[in-house]
From TrEMBL:
Protein name in UniProt: histidine kinase
EC number: 2.7.13.3
Cellular component per GO, a single term: membrane
Spans traversing the lipid bilayer: 12-34
A molecular-function term among this protein's GO annotations: protein dimerization activity
Catalysed transformations (reactions): ATP + protein L-histidine = ADP + protein N-phospho-L-histidine
CDD domains assigned to the protein according to its UniProt record, in alphabetical order: HATPase_UhpB-NarQ-NarX-like
Ranges for domain Histidine kinase: 70-260
Record-linked SUPFAM superfamilies: ATPase domain of HSP90 chaperone/DNA topoisomerase II/histidine kinase
Length: 266
């Protein structure tokens, strides 16, 4: 009887040990499978991040090339043509010309030179807006608002509360971002109003942007050169772009640092 009880205890012990062994194997296999899953997800995330960075770089290069082509075309079509015409007039400014002919040609040359100077100023303004250079980001965005409101094509409301300093590089990036957003609304949204709210606390700068246009499909939000350019500029400032859900129109939240952090932005 006692031997039977001991055998039963041994069998129970062996069964328990086998159960614990199987359980341990199950835990090990589960852990290994979980680790493989985590590694696979990390690899997929890294691949997506690398592809996203490549897309941003490509968009940035395309944007730069587009801007160079536009400036080159402006220089060729406007300034080049004006200077060529001025050269032709100078050829006819002979000393033996009548005073009336000489004075007439001189006035035409002066008019052409004035037009050339105005064209050069416009091109240089596009490269680095004078109002941004002299008065800062708030005044530059207010200038965009005023120009659009005067045109009567669209109503722009702009609220701003900037505290602290924003680096010149970041001011230019934000100015270009706002220009791109406004241009997208005018070209594609069929909107009649834009709301701009720009805030800064010295460390972070945030923009709330909204229009009452036709909105965007979710599949189109990250596509297109315009928003790729915006995300590319934001990535240079450790910033982010968030599309808000809305029944109509477009609603965005954008944010970034106010100046480069040498420890994190390299």
């Amino acid at each position: 009887m006692r031997q039977a009880e001991e055998l039963n205890q041994i069998e129970l012990l062996i069964g328990a040990m086998l159960g614990m062994f199987v359980l341990a194997l199950g835990v090990i296999f589960f852990f290994l499978a979980y680790q493989r899953r985590i590694l696979r997800q990390q690899k997929e995330y890294q691949q997506k991040e690398q592809e996203y960075q490549r897309q941003l770089l490509r968009s940035n290069l395309l944007s730069q090339e587009k801007e160079r082509n536009r400036i080159g075309q402006d220089l060729h079509d406007e300034i080049g043509a004006l200077l060529t015409t001025s050269k032709l007039y100078f050829r006819h400014l002979a000393q033996d010309s009548s005073k009336k002919t000489f004075d007439d040609l001189k006035l035409r040359v002066f008019d052409l030179l004035e037009s050339t100077i105005a064209s050069v100023r416009r091109v240089s303004h596009d490269l680095r807006p004078v109002v941004l250079e002299n008065l800062g980001l708030e005044a530059a965005v207010a200038s965009i608002r005023d120009q659009l409101n005067i045109s009567g094509l669209i109503k722009v409301n702009f609220d701003c509360d900037l505290k602290g300093e924003v680096s010149r590089e970041y001011q230019l990036n934000w100015y270009r971002i706002i220009q791109e957003l406004v241009n997208n609304t005018i070209k594609h949204a069929n909107a009649d109003s834009i709301e701009l709210e720009l805030f800064g606390d010295g460390d972070k700068l945030s923009l709330k942007y909204a229009d009452n246009g036709v909105g965007m499909k979710e599949s189109d939000q990250r596509n297109g050169l315009g928003f790729s350019n915006i995300e590319s500029r934001l990535s240079l400032m450790n910033g982010e772009l968030v599309f808000n859900e809305t029944n109509s129109g477009l609603s965005l939240n954008l944010s970034s640092n106010t100046m480069k952090n040498l420890l994190t932005d390299e």
